[in-house]
Amino acid sequence: MMHFLEENMPQITMEQARAAISAGEAKAAQLGVPVNITVLDAGAHLKAFSRMDGAVLGSIDLAMGKARTAVLFQTTSEAVWEYCKPGAPAHALEHSNGGLTPFPGGISLFARDGTVIGAVGVSGGAVPQDLEIAEAAAAALA
User: Fold this and answer.
1) Mean pLDDT of the chain
2) CATH superfamily of 14-139
3) Can you give the pLDDT at residue 96?
């Protein structure tokens, strides 16, 4: 069987993805807001997903989009907005890559050596709640 990824390239593990999901769910429960939580690997492919009971169906795509935006640009989804908002250097950047979701709730996940190993995306609450939940999920890997 061929291996397309380098043997030594850090990858997010299922254990790490589950830890991020669990931490996000715990924070969401504490805040009393059901959300969708997505964990993607470094190639922007789905690693883990949770739709809490009562989470809005329309937020599934938003959680995926926030995580995808974060991992593609190796930053937070919110940071991408600074480049694509009207008047910014890359106005309309959000239309690239099949569409981006450049608002809070997506955070890149890093290995200890600084390599991006994936991203988490959260949607279903108010924007500040999504961000707080995503931060809790990402902190589970720190």
Assistant:
1) 92
2) Haem-degrading domain (3.30.450.150)
3) 86
Q: Per residue, what are the HEC states of the chain?
A: CCCCCCCCCCCCCHHHHHHHHHHHHHHHHHHCCCCEEEEEECCCCEEEEEECCCCCCCHHHHHHHHHHHHHHHCCEHHHHHHHHCCCCCCCCHHHCCCCCCCCCCEEEEECCCCCEEEEEEEECCCHHHHHHHHHHHHHCCC
At residue 102, does pLDDT exceed 70? yes
**Angle (nearest 5°) at CA 112 between 108 and 115:** 50
Length of the chain: 142
pTM (two decimals): 0.91
Amino acid at 52: M
Q: For 86, phi and psi rounded to 5 degrees?
A: -55, 130
**Cα–Cα distances in angstroms (integers) from residue 64 to residues 36, 107, 134, in the given order:** 9, 11, 12
